[in-house]
Amino acid sequence: MTTISTNTPTAELQRLDAAHHFHPFTDKAALDRKGARVILRGEGVWLTDSEGHRILDGMAGLWCVNVGYGRKELPEAAARQMLELPYYNTFFQTTHVPAIALSAKIAELAPGNLNHVFFAASGSEANDTNIRLVRRYWQVKEQPERRVIIARWNGYHGSTLGGGSLGGMKGIHAHGGMIDGVEHIRQPYWWAEGGDMDEDAFGLARAQELEAKILEIGADKVAAFIGEPIQGAGGVIVPPKTYWPEIQRICRKYGILLIADEVITGFGRTGNWFGSQTFGITPDIMTIAKGLSSGYAPIGGSILSDEVAEVVGSGGEFAHGYTYSGHPVAAAVALENLRIMQDEGIVDHVKNVAHPYLAERWLKLTEHPLVGEAKLVGLMGSIALTPDKAKRAAFASEAGTVGYRCRERCFANDLIMRHVGDRMIISPPLVIRPEEIDVLIARATKSLDECYAGLKADGLLVAKEG
Ligand SMILES: *Cc1c(COP(=O)(O)O)cnc(C)c1O
Question: Which of 195, 197, 198, 404 has its CA 20 to 30 A from that of 295?
Answer without folding.
Answer: 404
